[in-house]
Amino acid sequence: MNWAESKKGYETFLRLEKSLSQNSVSAYANDINKLVSFIDEHYPTLTPETVKLAHLRKFVEWMNQKGISPRTQARTISGIKSFYKFLLIEEAVENDPTTLLESPRIGRKLPEILTDDEINRLIDAIDDSKPEGIRNKAILETLYSCGLRVSELVDLRLSNLHFEQEFLKISGKGEKERLVPISKRAIDDIKKYLVASRKKLNIEKGNENIVFLNRRGKKLSRVMIFTIIKNLADKIKLNKNISPHTFRHSFASALVQGGADLRTVQEMLGHESILTTEIYTHLDKEYLKDTVNKYHPRS
After folding, report:
1. Which of 239, 266, 288, 299 is least surrounded by CB atoms within 10 angstroms?
2. 152: three-class secondary structure by DSSP
């Protein structure tokens, strides 16, 4: 089995067996592409079944030389390990060369968050006299109110808006569905957008159920959401490097600071493991101090 065949089979496995989104499949495929680039450059005769641990260690050295960050290296190695697990399942290889392959040690980086005042400044900077301004205001309120991933925001459906119950039904990673509360302010902004902006669009076929659309009546891209937020940050001269995910971090941090328990926050964010959610406790020193005072016998 050559690299192209192996990669194609792996992508099919991720889509059908693991139920991963196309974005996740593309990310895993990119990990394999890095390895294939290295193989083509240094060991052009190697096939997936003839790769050894020594070759993979050289690959890690190659990534270092290319200036690839330790975090990205760790992500790539994880993808390659997953690829070889698939090949073992398919009996395309007899041994897994990644078993003893170590990932670089990386520190846990605390995410950038926005204060409520900074979010208000960003939203106030939007010109809502224009149709796209009405839309953009609804987008930012929804991101902050619900803590959505950007992929969840652009895929949000009209049929999943349950405003009477003040909930959204979200299809997250691995097609897992969850219910997320939405604030009255975000509901009002979405309703205003639907009537004053979206209703006037010539909606392209296939996009009728998508909430947030561009001027051509098509679903917004993730890049467009990044651009909207970056332009607003530049407009108010915000000295922070932010993205749509910053609103998700800010949502979670605000809940933890307000006293929400981690299990509840985990459920609303759609985290598979509570270990992922725990990072938000490190953003709030008072939360950590209160936890020790409450539960430690010497406090």
Report:
1. 239
2. helix
